Amino acid sequence: MSLKGKAYIVGAYEHPTRYAPEKSVAQLHAEVAAGALKDAGLSKEDVDGYFCAGDAPGMGGFSMVDYLNLKVRHIDSTDTGGSSYLVHVKHAVQAIAAGKCDVALITLAGRPRSEGMATGTAPRTGNPAQPDLQWEYPYGPTVVNMYAMVAMRHMYEFGTTSAQLAWVKVAASYHAQHNPHALLRDVVSVSDVLNSPMVADPLHRLDCCVITDGGGALVVARPEIANSINRPRVKIIGTGEAIKGQMGGAIDLTYSAARVSGAAAFAEAGVKPADIKYASIYDSFTITVVMQLEDLGFCEKGEGGKFVADGNLISGVGKLPFNTDGGGLCNNHPANRGGMTKVIEAVRQLREEAHPAVQVKNCDLALAQGMGGQLATRHGSATLILERE
Amino acid sequence: MAERKIPAPTPTPETEPFWQAAREGRFLIRVCRTCERAHWYPRALCPFCFSENTEWREASGRGSIYTFSIMRRAKEPYAIAYVKLDEGPMMMTNIVDSAFENIAIDQQVELVFRETEDGPPVPVFRPVQA
Q1: Do A198 and B72 touch (CB under 8 A)?
Q2: Residue B11 lies in a domain
């Protein structure tokens, strides 16, 4: 069954904070929930489906449903890292289409910045029962080096350069200068990126996203509800999700799970990459953007470095305006999970509520792309195609 | 420069024979007798055909670097890599006994075991001497 047009995004809210030591994680979830419901013109009592991932404190959705005092008939706590919230949108559409809920609330929040988390550079241990842990943890995998190894191979296979990757950050910084909430608002140059300290070869500090507190929330509803409220209508017309791992040791780091999630979303929507006016592309690192652009079909495999160079991702300058809020590289990466903000900025663009300096003209078709986990080991990809009605 | 201390792996009943062999200086991989493919990391059921007919076999310990990264922002910087074993599968590992600037993709490497902090030694790789 096609899910095309079975539900709409009717509310979206990004918390303005980037540093919140005075707040609890549950409180931040509640604040973004209230913000998204207010944006939708709905109340807490309208919510009958709740979606959250591993950033939500407590087991699954139990604690947050109780803390928010929701009365739900559908819950989903699928966790695919930073891409979870795009997966939640897809699952919300499925639940709504099946009549299992009418108004789905999706929340994300966290405080890695005020907790002083070494997000990208400290190896993260886990439960010894995790089958891959004993084969990887001793070697010091971190978030940064698990993307750096992908970048290293991309450079070897396709001749991609550090200067090309740097253009991703440069474009994000051009957008972030217009976002008063962005953590980093200074425009940077390619040489600024190349001269920033090397974290894990070939990724420099400015190839990496920010670490911020905060959060965001979305409200997804069935068409009748979207019709009844006084907001621009953002229709969900294509969705896809996929997981990619090490394939029993037959590892190939030249492509990501976005190849599968993207193809599914484009097929469902009945549109092509060339039709997309604006793209939110998960930008944990500069290489993440290049990889996903190729796998989504915005350019040929291996051509991503050339595609992003020379300002091609800058709104008003290049062919594919991306991450006009400044993205994870400059604006916000709340709870170390950037999928939520990808959807929120796509909604802003479709509603023509982005900053005027970065608003894409006649933006009636947008894509939001999320990537979670670690690109070199196990990751989840989710793709949404959204249409303004 | 001091070499990074390697944290101990945490064997499970499924993998204990691997780590026991490692203590004896032998490097095992898991091979499926049904589809005759070697896989990594080792599992009881073949990840390709789901056969339970798998066995430990001693491997050559030879391979080549598929990709790597030098983790600079660490107390003791280290080289992490995927090495493609001559038997086929690719594994995460460290590259040791080499200046960082000499490490390269496609370089031929050979296995050595490195002691861990409080557990069995782990397989790492060093460049094959020409």
Answers
A1: yes
A2: no
